[in-house]
Amino acid sequence: MKGETNWKLKLKALLHDPPHKIWVMFSKEGRKININKTFVHPYHKWHEKVAEHLLNILYYNECIEEEDIRKADTIASALSRIVTAPEFSDENTKKEYEKITTVSWEEIKFIDIFSLKQTKLETPNHQKIEEIFKKISNVPLKGKERDKFLFFYFWRFYPEIFPWINTHPADSRAPNHSIYHHLVQTSAIISVLPRPAFLLFTIGPVQSFISTARKTQDLWAGSYLLSYLTWESMKPIIEKLGPDNIIFPNLLKQPLMDRYLKNLKFNNKTFGNLIKDLKLPFSFYNTPDKLTIANFPNRFLAIIPFDKNLAIECENRFRYALKRLAQKTIEYLQQIRTQNILIFQTNSERIKQDIERHLLSYFQVYWVVLPWIPDNNIKNLQSGLNEYKTLIGETEIYNTINTIIRYPYYEPNIGDIYPLLLELTEKFLGARKSIRNFEFLEEEGDKCTLCGEFNQLWLLNSEPQWKDKEKRKNNRDEWNKLIPEVRKNERLCGICLVKRFFPKILAETFDLKIDIRFPSTAEIASIGEKRRLDKETKEKLKNLIKKFKNKFSFPRSSSVPKLKEDPLYKIDGMFLMESTYREDYFEKEFGVKIKKEDFEEIVGFLRKNKIKPTTYYTILQMDGDNMGKWLKGEFNPEIEKVVHPKVKEALISLLVESKKDLAGLLCKKHPNTPSIHQAFSSKLSEFALEKVRNLIEEEHYGKLIYAGGDDILAFLPIEEVLNCAYNLQKIFKEILSNKASMSAGIVIVHHKYPLYLALNEVNLAEKRAKSYFGKDAFCIKILTHSGEVRETGGKWELIDFLNKLISKFKAEEISSRFPYQFLEITERLLKEDKVIDKNDQIYPIIKNELKRIYERKTGDPIFLEEILNLYETYSFSYFDFGNIFIIANFISKEIKDVKIQEEKNDNV
Hints:
Low-confidence stretches: 37-43, 339-343, 900-908
Strand order of the largest sheet: 10-11-9-12-13-14
Number of strands: 14
C-alpha cells in the first residue's frame, strides 16, 4: 500500500450526503432550509448544497464535489442499491416511470431487510445538526490531526447523536439500507481507489484451542484469546485505512474498537478527552463488563487496495501479538517466583523462546486478496462475471445480478457484482486452507499435562535434559512452586501457560482495575444452596471457612455476578460440600497437608444445618442455525419486499419487452451487500453485548464464558438452565428475524468430571440438536457420577412441558419410579431404539403401557392427557421420549427450593 491515507478526503466522503438527505430531498421543510440566511430555490442537487454547507462549518469555503468522491459514491450506491428500470420505448415512457417512482417524505418507510419491519421516518432537526457541527469545529487541532479526529468522531458517533440515521434510507426507491451505511461504504471505498480488493483473513484452530481447559478460567481465556488475536490482526487496516474498511465484523460500538479510539492520541491529548473538552455527546462501550466478552469471530472481511503488503502486515501483527503474549507471560512468571528470581532471570529468555515457538507453530493464519477489477475501470464488470461463471457456474445469484445489470436504472459499475466477488473470495480462501501450512516441531520430553500436544516448559536453570531422571523430577518440583496459579503436579506447555496467565495479562494490558476470575464448577453447582440459606447461617459459615482458609494456601475464588453482595460470594462452593473435607483431597488438589481436626467444626456445621448442595452443574452451548446461509444471503427477502411499492408498481405497469425478466427479478432473493453484512453484524453484536450477559448472569445466576454473536457458552446452576436457554433463543429471534433460530446443547454433569470431556459432550449435544432434532431445538444430556448417561431433546416448545414435569416430580405428584418402569417396559418391547411411528404395530402397545404405568403410580388424569398428547406429537425416538421423564426426575431431585428463602432475605 503506497502513500498515507487522506483523512480529509475520507471525511468528505463520509459527509458527501447530509445525514438527513431523504428529509432534505423529499420534504417541504427540507427544501426550504435557510443556508447562510439566504433562501436557495430547491433543485435536484439541493442535498449536495446542504452537505457542502455542513462541511463549510468545519472547513471554510471547502468544496465537497471531487472526482474520487463521485466515483466512490457511485460504487457505494451500486453495492447496496437494487433499483432497476424497464427498457423504455420512448422518452414519454421514461418520464412516466420517473413520475410514478417519485415519492413524498410522508410515503417513505424504512424496511428492515431481515424482519421486514417497516419504520416511519423520524423528522430530523436541521438546527441541531448545525449545532453539533459548530461544536466539533472548535476542536483545537490543525492539518491532518484535525482531519483524522473529525473523521473518527463522525464515523463513531453519527448514529449516536442522531439515532434516526439508522432508519433514514440512502435511497427512497430502495429504502432497505440506511444513509449511514451508504456514507461509511463511500468513505471506505475512497481509501482503496483506483483498484479495490477484498481481504478475507482467518485464524485457527478454534474448537480444540478453546476446549483444552481444566478450569473455567482457562476456557474463557481460550475463547477471548482468539477474539483478541482477530482484533490485533485487524489493526493495520484500522490504522492505515480506517475502521470503516472492515466490513465484517462491524466495528461500530465494539468494545475493543472503542477502547482503541478513546485512547487514540491527537497532539498528546486523547480522543476521549478532546470530546469531553468540547462537551460533545458520546458514550463509549469499553466498560470492563463489555471488554471481557469474547465477541469477535476468528475471521474478518475488509476492503483494501489491491496490494498484498497490507495482508502481510496483518499477519505480521498477529505474530507480533503472539510474541507479546509470550513476553507478558514470562514477566508474570517472574513476578510469582520471587523466592528464586535470580536463578529464574538467567533462563527467562530461553523459556520465552519456547513459549513463542509453541504459539507460532500452533496457530495458523490463512488469507486471500481478490481484486474487484483487473484495471482502473470501475465499469469493467465482465472479467468478474466471466471468472465467477468459469469457477462456480451460472448460479441463481449470477443470473439475478446479470438481470440487474441488463436493466439498470443507474449506470452499472463494479459495485453491482459485489456478491459474486465475495463468493469467489470465499472459494479462494477455502482452496488456500486446503493447502495446510506444515511446520515440523521436534520435541523430546514430558508432554503438557493439560493438552498433551507440546512439551511442558523446562523451568530449571539449564538446557532441557529430559533423559536425566533426577533433573526431570527437579523440573516437576519447580512447577509445584507455582501453586496456586497451577495445580499440584500440573506442568504446562507455552500455549496452556499463556491461557492460564491471560486474565492477569489482559487486566494489566487494558488497565481494567478488576480481578478477572471465574467461578469453579463446584461453585456453579452450589449456587442453588447459597440462594436457599438464610443470612445468619451464611455469615456463620463464612466466618468458619475464612478462619480455616487463612491457615492454609488456597487460591482466591468468587461466585457468579448475581451473588456479589452475598456473604458467601468469596467462599467457593466446594467448601459447602462435605465430600471436600478429606486430607488426601487437599494435598492432591492444593499441595497442602491438612489434618482432620482442622475442618471438623465446619463439617459439623454443614451437617447440623443440613447444608448439602447438589454436586451437579450445567454447561449451555448455543449456536445460531444456518449462520453460513445467512451470511451468504440465502435468507434474504425477495427484492419486491424491500423496494418501495411505487417501484414495483412502475415496473409492472410499464414493462414491455423486459416484462418476463423483470417480473421474475422481483421474486428473486435480494443479493448480498455490505449494508446487509454490517447490519447483520450489528444485530449479532447487539445480541451478544446487550442481551446475553445480562440474561445469563443477572436473571439466571450463571456465568458467561463467551458470546461471539450467535455462539454462546455459559455455566449455569441446574435449576436455571432450561429457562435461560429458552429465553436466549427467543431474544435472538426478536433481534434478528422470525426466520432466525438457535439450537442448544445442555449437559448436566458432576463438578469433578474433567472439564475438557464435559465440553466435548456439550459440543456433541449441540450437534445432535441440529442434526437429529432438526435445528431450532435443544438436546439435553445428564452424565451422572456413577457413569449413567441419558439424553433427550426436541423443539423449544418442549421446555414448557419439562418445567411442568419437574415441578410435579418435585412435589411428589408423580412417582419417581414411573420413568424407570416405563423405560424398562419400552426397552424390553423394542430391543433397540427407533423413531415413534403411528403406523408401527408397537405404537399403541407402548401408548397403553405408558397410560397403565402412569395411572398405577399417580392419580392426576389431567396431566396424563398432556403426556399422551406429547407422545402423539413427539416425532423422535421412543428412548428419547422415555428419557424426558428420567431427566426431569433427575433435575427435580437436584434443584433447591430457593424462591421462598430469597423473599425472606429480601424482607430482612
